[in-house]
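retry 2 of 3: previous attempt timed out while embedding histidyl-adenosine monophosphate. Reduced batch size to 1 and resubmitted. Inputs unchanged:
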Amino acid sequence: MAVKNALTAPKGVPDYVPPASRTFVAVRDRLVAAADRAGYSPIELPIFEDTALFTRGVGESTDVVSKEMYTFADRGDRSVTLRPEGTAGVMRAVIEHGLDRGSLPVKLVYSGPFFRYERPQAGRYRQLQQVGIEAIGSDDPALDAEVIAVGHEAFRSVGLTGYRLELTSLGDSGDRPAYREKLQAFLADLPLDEATRQRAALNPLRVLDDKRPEVQAMLVDAPLMLDHLSVESGEHFREVLAILDRLAVPYVINPRMVRGLDYYTRTTFEFVHPGLGAQSGMGGGGRYDGLMAELGGQALSGIGFGLGVDRTVLAAKAEGLTVGDEARCEVYGVPMGAAASRELAVIAGQLRSAGIRVDRAYGGRGLKAAMKSADASGARVALVLGDRDLEQGTIMVKDLLSGDQQPVALMDVGAAVAQILLR
Ligand code: HAM
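retry 2 succeeded.
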């Protein structure tokens, strides 16, 4: 018989299998819990949307939209795109369901997969997972500080300490044109190659993000947005910093920060972890004051972030943290014989109904192999039941930590288990 090649996952997508999947889920849940503590409600949105949502919302000059989207025609010949990020979809849903007509700000949290056709490398995947929040409908600088502090608390709750929070202000739609002109004039005098010139014409800010050292050397004296803020934008930014100071959230100002998405205005930030190598961005976000109007809604401002779950897991590993390593179950059942197997199914069901986490051996395995599985499961208690015990109406209850074991009447097994678990 011909041997078939085993299939593998598509290039650049991570699998999380046990036991590492426990870490992934624990990290994701802690990031979500930080938002829950600040009053954000969950929102669940489609994985694919009309392509126009992202071209309009994220911006055609961005790499994300111009090079990285998974776009295809569905069977009805509509152009749809696997979501590359979450903010545009949230805005679409807020407008569509009129959430912005209730009390403001609307505060939402989401988590799930996003898709970007990037060149895969360590920490850069084509399917990535984010936990994100969006707060829509308030200009209050205290809201900016809240969003940033929730991100900081989220990473802290995972146990991380070795990251840095970088902040800047990108100004508002009033501040931008004059600065843009100034930067364009500065760039026009530089001996840039044609492709870079074209980028400068489309979005000069993006040139500041050029990674080539020879280009960076030319940009040393480039004008910076932070030095060209209007009075209002400057005051807003200073107030955000003042609140973060009071909250003792440490940050550094990075006036050269360039985000990969076009919608950002005013407060903009990134969480950077040096332990992650080249893909050091662990999370990022900012204000997007024009986005809702751009997508056909009212002119409400918003602010939010996306935290990369994959990279947070890698950062935890880099810091030597163990997250989510709690045992798979508390009780492990070992039946010896067919009648015992049936009885154990009932006992396991009853214990699970009582909220106890129970796993068991299957398939008539030998006692030694089954006890090995009991140890490997991390359970505290093993229940060993033979057909002969069954005839006598007893079950062997073993404390796997102390090694003590004793026969217990079948009807008392719940109490005996509970007693050990509470020890
Ligand atoms: P972003 O900076 O493009 O922002 O992505 C947020 C985070 O997602 C990054 O900091 C990174 O940790 C993770 N990430 C992005 N691309 C990849 C990848 N290819 N592989 C692994 N992780 C990745 C946004 O997406 C905005 N929607 C965030 C936001 C919400 N801004 C305002 N509200």
